[in-house]
Structure formats: structure tokens, C-alpha cells
From TrEMBL:
Record-linked Pfam families: Glyco_hydro_18
GO MF, any single term: hydrolase activity
CDD domains: CBM6-CBM35-CBM36_like (cd02795)
Annotated protein name in UniProt: Glycosyl hydrolase
Key words, A-Z: Hydrolase
Stretches assigned to the GH18 domain: 6-321
Family matches, as InterPro entries: Galactose-bd-like_sf (IPR008979), GH (IPR017853), Glyco_hydro18_cat (IPR001223)
Keyword Hydrolase: yes
Length: 823
């Protein structure tokens, strides 16, 4: 006989205690398989008290629906110290807890068992003790009565140590034997303090249940779903709004009140209009969302114009603008003379001439004559390229008056590209013939030409984007056209990042000629670059493949920050990492440690786990490890991991620098080799907004102490050997941030231009929201379509037991008509 409820069981919790919860229990108890009675709280001593839903209020429904498995939910309300005490049996807390579980089951003999909801259990190092705790709970319940059930509530995990909330104590496969059922709490990816988004986004759900269904008994697993949503207020900062977090929890019916204009941000009364709005359907995450009191909305790609190097990118369907490097922006006013470097009037010594430029070798000198038609004051600028760190100086003379230009900063952003520099500003030039001559201070400099103009200026730029704001009136609940009573605010949503070392060289091996001999040298071993043949785009994914030492062809490195992402191949062994001179920072597969050497001397180490990549995954899914070191004088800092965690420091003696690059004892793959300055940092945080009327406001820059700023390039150097994080009291979230304008007196029906100008690279310009200054928000919620979709996925895709909805009384009541009866 076919089991029509296979995969269709439904669990809920009695957390809300509201009228709708009791209505659902009364009218739709036949749709429920399991109910966790959210009543029992354990404290740090292991004692259980009754603090939640009263048992007396539940007895009517317990008697009405005997088919339901009524579980006694025992929770610690996310208090880490309680979990720790139970796990470690501190002062006998676990022993007491186990006797308390028996006590409450004795007190309520009608219960089907217990539901264990323990959260904030800490890191992976706690897994063995956590496993023992759940084992002891399970064995205690079964010894008391084998028919009693144990449900455990587990955090959403996409793999071992795959928690987004730090709950890495949880290992699904270890806990599978110690439960009859398990409800995975896969809700809460978005929360009150996060950036707005689906409470349970698709990517997280798929990762969680791909893992759970593989390592647990699928028929035990309840797929956790939210019945609630969040409304994030984005018209001002939480501090100014007098709240801790910008998000406010909403039931389905609270969200419906926003849709129908029942609610507004002035206490559901004037002066803000009460405006019915429509919701959008996110067909990827299968969830509805809305923008209450927002009059215009655009994504980064909706800019009406943008200037390079600002480009459009996509991540997780978010279409944003960003710049990965700064370009020199130049202005010349009126150009009177424009001469390329490839046609000197005379030259002596070693001068290599091409169409656009000359390369000045040893003793090389080139001379150019130009005519000025009208005597006057001019600016004269010239264009050069310093191709490498040892090709970094040039003499340039105007009518015999010589100036020297050189660059010694490793992080200078114009290496290996061309830039314009000022030769003379406001110089008087008579009518007639004048001369510019150039010679190499250091052989190898390239001279591209010069201009005489009215007004030369230059600056580094990350581009800018122009958006058009078009506020229009809405119709309120009374059918009257409405607009904000006192004006608008513009909120810009951006993603910022923590500062990183000022970039010297970023190598992902994707260029057409990835290892030119002018820049690279193989000091030992053999190296080649593999490129993905299936990618038709420019710069396809590539890997450096080999062993030995590969270095930049320059011997002057000393104070540097080196980072690499490497994978060990099946035949690889020994050490692999980055080096500078005789200092080697590496992952040692044989010892399973991060190690630092100077020559053959081991200066420091720390344990880590290193796993080789299988042959099948080498090109498509390599297991990459990040290893890095920062050398400042006689001090070395060693980091590892995707979060660049400082592992240890060491002191050098007799270090003189030299070559720098990647080194390995055996065959490895490397997908990134990054060289940065050891002292100078580049922030990824600031952007400016130019509002209608021309006012410019700066956003995002953090206040720092103990640093020296370079205002031209917007980078800073630490004044002592400290971590960058110690220079600031503020942190940068890896979530999207919101930045708000003052009140803008715009008029509905008109269009207004606004410009966003990033001052730092790697700032993602995500979305702009123009809303009522009295308040506007982003609202995500769950409806019947969302819950039914994932219920079907749970049953038919992952073949789980069913769904667990947090929590009863928050849901769209139409849901119950869409779910099967359990009896």
C-alpha cells in the first residue's frame, strides 16, 4: 500500500502563544505530525523550569489530536554558557540535566518524548563532548522508555565546519545515531542585524540538505522552514532610529498589512501616506519581497552612464558596479602641441624606437622639437612607463632645464602601464621652436610623448556612475494621489571590505602570456600554466602547475606581503608556500603544520589540516589553501585561511631580502600569487555621492589612528609594526551596508541626477533606494507558495521526513489547506 504521507510529515512549535497559533491547533491539528511544546528551559545547573507556553493552555489540543507526537521542547535560548556547562558536565550539570529530562516525562506521561533545542555550542573542537552529550540524552530517554522519542534541533550546516553562525560543534553524521528525528533549523540566514534578504535562501538550503541527506538517515530529517519574515528599515541608521538592529520580525499577516497600506512608519497614522504596494516574487529563492514607501529603486547596472574603470559585475544575481584598480584621470584643457614619443628628431646611444614610444637604454638620449605659435603661459606634461621596479628613473629637460623623475614605491599603481606627469606648470614659452630631451636615469624606461596645453591635471580614479531619480506619486488607501509630506531620503546599498596590503602584483595566471621572461624566472624546478579549455571568455580560469621556485625577476624585495592559494596534488608532498630571499612560509603536508623557515632553520609552526586534491578534482574543484606572510624588517607575521587569520609571529636575524615568489618541494597547483606592500594598506570602504544641486557627501571612510595617509592615492601606512585592525575601533561587515542622505526636497514628477563616485577600489555599488524621509524599508516574508515549494523539494528531491515550520501562529493560514492531512 502506498504511503501518501511519505516525506510529507509536518512539525511545528508552540512558541508564539498568540490567538492564531491556537486557531491553527484547533482547526488544522489534522495536518500536524509533531508539535514541540516550547515550555521547558534548562539553566547552567542542568535544572529545567517551565517558562514558555503553559501546558494547561495546550491540554485541549493534546486531547483533541491524539495522533500528534507531542514533544517536550527543552531549550537554552541560545545561551552559550548553558550549552558549555551541559557539554562539559560542569559542577554535574549534565548529570542533573539527564535526571530532569526523566522528571518532566514522568510529570507529563502523555508526551511522546523530548525535543532538544541547544544552541551556541561553539567550535569544532567541542564536537566530541557535544556528541557525548547527545548520546547520553538519547540513551537516558531510551532506558526510561524505549517508545519515547528524541528529536534534536540542529543548526544549518553545509558540511563539517560549515556553519554560517559559528555552530561548528555540530557534525551531522556523528549525531545521526542519537535521535529518532532531527529538525534542521535552516532559517535565520537573514536576521534582524543582517543585510536584507530571504530568511532561508536557496543556496544555503541546497547546501544544507545536500549534506544532511548524504550523511544522515533522510527519513529522520525535518526540513526547517520559516513562517516569518523581516522588515528592515533602511532610511536611517539603527542608532539614529533608537534600535539595536534595523530588522523587525513580521508574521505573514503583518507583511500583508504593509502590502495593503494598513501600516506606515509614523505609527500607522499621518503624516506618512498609507500606501498599498505590490510585492515582487524572487523566483530563484522562491520568496516574496517588497519595498514599502520606496518611490524609486535601481540596481548598479541601472546607471544611465558610468566611466571606466567602474564596471558591471554579477554575484548571486546582484548586479553591482565596482572597480578593481584605479586609472589615471587626466585633463589638459586646450592642447596646443601633441607629440608621440615614437618619432624623435634626434637620438644618441641606446634608444629603441617603435611607433608610439622609445625605450631608453644605457646612455640613451632622445630629443624632440616643437613649435609654439603664440607666446604665453603653458603647462607641459609627458607620458612614460616604468616597466619594472628596476626600470624606474628618467631625466626630462625642457629647453635645457632638466628634471629627474623616479619611483621607488613597490605599491605605486602605475607600474607596467603608462601615466602622465607634469614637467612644467605655468611656464612661459615664447613663440617659436622649443626642445624636449629625455635620457634614462635607469635603462629600460619608455617615453611615450608629451603635450603643451592650457591646464594639465591628473589624479587616480575608480570611475563614477550617474543615476536618474524619478519619484512619482502613489495612490493611497483612499484613492488619493500621495507623496511624502516633508521630502525624500536616498539610501545607497554598498558592500565594503576590510583593508588589504597595497597591491604590488596580482597574478591569477589568466593572461594570454602568463609568465613572460621579462617578469618571471624559474629559479628551480619546472612550471607551466594550465588554462580551462572549456571557457570561451577572455582570461579563463587558470592554474600554475609545477614544483621548485618561481619568482618575479627582481632581487630587491625585502619588506613585502606575500599570499598564495595552493592545492596539493595526489603525488605532491612536503612543503609549499611563498618565499622572499631565504625566508620560506609554507604548508607542510608531511607534518600537517604551517611552518616558517629561514634557510634550514625552523622559526615557528602551528598545526593545521591539509588534504590532497584527488586527480578527478584537480581542475574542476581543487582544495585550495591560503598561506601568507608579512615581512617588516626583522619581524615576520604568518597567516592562513580564507579569513587571513594571524597564526604566529617570528623574528629574523640577518635577513637581506632577494627574490620573491612561490616555492614547493613537490607538485602543487596555484591559482593566486599576490604581492603587496608590508606597511601600506589600501582601504576598500569610501565612496562619495553627488546629490541634485551639486552637494558632495563622503561615506564609508573609517577613522584610524597610528597611520600616515597618502591623500593622492587614498592609501595609508601603519606607523609601527601592528595589525591594520588595531588602527581603528570600527569594523566592516561582510554584509551589505546602507548609507543615508539628509532630507532631499525633491518634487514628484521631476527627474534628478545623482552620481556615485567610489574613492576606493573593491567597493560594490549594489542598489539605490529613494524613499519617504519618514521611513522606508525592505520586507521579505514567507507565503503559502514559498512553503509549499520547499515542502515538495524536501519530499521529492531529498526524500526527507517532512518539514518543520518555525513557528506556529506566524504562517499564512492558507498553508494548511495546501498540506495533506496526517490522519
Amino acid at each position: 500500500m502506498r504511503d501518501y504521507l511519505k516525506g510529507k510529515r509536518c512539525m511545528v512549535w508552540s512558541f508564539m502563544g498568540n490567538a492564531r497559533m491556537y486557531q491553527a491547533l484547533r482547526d488544522y491539528g489534522d495536518r500536524l505530525d509533531t508539535v514541540g511544546i516550547f515550555t521547558f528551559e534548562v539553566d547552567i545547573t542542568g535544572t529545567i523550569t517551565e517558562t514558555g507556553t503553559s501546558i494547561s493552555s495546550m491540554l485541549t489540543y493534546i486531547n483533541r489530536w491524539p495522533h500528534i507526537k507531542w514533544l517536550l521542547t527543552i531549550m537554552n535560548h541560545g545561551t552559550a554558557s548553558i550549552f558549555t556547562a551541559l557539554r562539559n558536565n560542569t559542577n554535574g550539570a549534565k548529570d542533573k540535566f539527564l535526571t530532569e529530562i526523566i522528571r518532566i516525562m514522568n510529570k507529563y506521561p502523555w508526551c511522546a518524548g523530548v525535543d532538544i533545542d541547544l544552541e551556541r555550542g561553539g567550535g569544532y573542537e567541542n564536537k566530541d563532548a557535544a556528541n557525548a552529550l547527545f548520546r547520553d540524552i538519547y540513551n537516558t530517554v531510551k532506558a526510561y522508555n524505549p517508545s519515547k522519542l528524541v528529536n534534536i534541533c540542529l543548526p544549518g550546516m553545509t558540511g563539517v565546519q560549515g556553519s554560517v553562525g559559528g555552530e561548528n560543534w555540530c557534525v551531522y553524521e556523528d549525531l545521526d545515531p542519537y535521535c529518532d528525528t532531527a529538525a534542521i533549523m535552516s532559517y535565520g540566514m537573514a536576521w534582524a542585524g543582517s543585510a536584507p534578504g530571504p530568511v532561508s535562501p536557496r543556496n544555503w538550503l541546497e547546501g544544507t540538505y545536500d549534506y544532511a541527506a548524504r550523511v544522515m538517515t533522510p527519513e529522520k530529517v525535518f526540513f526547517g522552514l520559516p513562517a516569518y519574515g523581516w522588515n528592515w528599515r533602511i532610511h536611517d541608521s539603527p542608532a539614529n532610529l533608537g534600535i539595536t538592529y534595523r530588522g523587525i520580525s513580521n508574521t505573514y499577516y503583518a507583511a500583508q498589512n504593509w502590502m495593503t497600506g494598513v501600516y506606515n512608519f509614523t505609527n500607522d497614522a499621518p503624516p506618512q501616506p498609507r500606501i498599498p504596494i505590490i510585492a515582487y516574487w524572487d523566483d530563484y529563492d522562491k520568496v516574496p519581497w517588497a519595498l514599502p514607501q520606496v518611490y524609486d529603486y535601481m540596481e548598479g547596472w541601472d546607471a544611465v552612464s558610468r566611466t571606466y574603470p567602474l564596471i558591471g559585475e554579477t554575484y548571486n544575481r546582484r548586479r553591482y558596479l565596482t572597480a578593481y584598480s584605479k586609472q589615471q584621470r587626466t585633463e589638459f584643457g586646450t592642447i596646443y602641441v601633441d607629440r608621440t614619443g615614437g618619432s624623435p628628431d634626434s637620438h644618441t646611444g641606446s634608444v629603441s624606437i617603435s611607433t608610439q614610444m622609445v625605450t631608453l637604454g644605457e646612455g640613451g638620449d632622445a630629443e624632440y622639437e616643437f613649435e609654439i605659435a603664440t607666446a604665453g603661459v603653458y603647462d607641459v606634461a609627458f607620458r612614460i612607463s616604468f616597466p619594472f621596479w628596476d626600470k624606474n628613473g628618467i631625466h626630462v629637460a625642457l629647453d635645457g632645464v632638466s628634471s629627474t623623475f623616479s619611483e621607488n614605491r613597490l605599491w605605486w599603481p602605475y607600474w607596467r602601464t603608462t601615466c602622465w606627469l607634469s614637467l612644467s606648470s605655468g611656464v612661459y614659452l615664447s613663440a617659436g621652436t622649443h626642445t624636449i630631451s629625455v635620457s634614462a636615469l635607469v635603462p629600460g624606461v619608455q617615453f611615450y610623448g608629451f603635450r603643451a596645453c592650457s591646464n594639465f591635471s591628473e589624479s587616480p580614479s575608480a570611475g563614477e556612475a550617474e543615476f536618474m531619480l524619478s519619484p512619482r506619486m502613489f495612490k493611497d488607501v483612499n484613492g488619493v494621489m500621495a507623496e511624502p509630506d516633508r521630502g525624500f531620503k536616498l539610501t545607497t546599498e554598498v558592500l565594503r571590505r576590510k583593508a588589504d596590503s597595497a597591491l604590488v602584483w596580482y597574478e591569477d595566471f589568466r593572461d594570454d602570456n602568463p609568465l613572460p621572461s621579462s617578469y618571471w624566472t624559474a629559479l628551480s624546478g619546472q612550471w607551466q600554466v594550465w588554462r580551462n579549455p572549456n571557457q570561451t571568455t577572455s582570461r579563463p580560469y587558470s592554474q600554475l602547475d609545477g614544483s621548485g621556485e618561481l619568482a618575479w625577476n627582481y632581487t630587491g624585495f625585502s619588506d613585502v606581503h606575500l599570499r598564495a592559494r595552493i592545492a596539493f596534488t595526489p603525488e605532491g608532498n612536503g612543503r609549499a608556500g611563498v618565499f622572499c630571499g631565504d625566508v620560506f612560509c609554507c604548508l607542510n603536508f608531511n607534518t600537517q603544520r604551517i611552518e616558517l623557515y629561514k634557510g634550514s632553520s625552523l622559526l615557528g609552526s602551528t598545526a593545521t589540516e591539509i588534504i590532497k586534491t584527488t586527480e578527478a578534482n584537480l581542475r574542476s574543484n581543487p582544495r585550495m589553501y591560503t598561506i601568507e606572510m608579512r615581512i617588516r624588517g626583522n619581524s615576520v607575521r604568518v597567516y592562513s585561511g580564507a579569513s587571513n587569520i594571524l597564526r604566529f609571529t617570528a623574528t629574523l636575524n640577518g635577513f637581506s631580502g632577494g627574490y620573491a615568489g612561490v616555492r614547493s618541494d613537490g607538485r602543487i597547483l596555484c591559482e593566486l600569487l599576490r604581492l603587496g606592500d608590508a606597511w601600506v594598506y589600501e582601504p576598500y570602504e569610501r565612496f562619495d555621492v553627488i546629490f541634485p544641486g551639486g552637494t558632495t557627501v563622503e561615506y564609508g571612510r573609517l577613522s584610524r589612528t597610528g597611520v600616515t595617509w597618502d591623500n593622492e592615492f587614498q592609501v595609508f601606512a601603519v606607523n609601527s609594526d601592528v595589525e591594520e585592525s588595531s588602527t581603528r575601533s570600527q569594523d566592516i561587515s561582510m554584509d551589505y551596508d546602507f548609507f543615508h542622505s539628509g532630507v532631499l526636497p525633491l518634487v514628484c514628477g521631476n527627474d534628478y541626477s545623482v552620481k556615485v563616485v567610489p574613492k576606493d577600489i573593491n567597493v560594490w555599488i549594489s542598489r539605490l533606494f529613494l524613499g519617504d524621509a519618514d521611513g522606508f524599508s525592505i520586507l521579505y516574508y514567507q507565503d503559502v507558495d514559498s512553503l509549499v515549494y520547499w515542502a515538495n523539494e524536501a519530499a521529492y528531491r531529498w526524500k526527507l521526513r517532512g518539514i518543520a515550520i518555525w513557528s506556529l501562529g506566524q504562517e499564512d493560514m492558507r498553508l494548511w489547506e495546501a498540506l495533506p492531512k496526517q490522519i
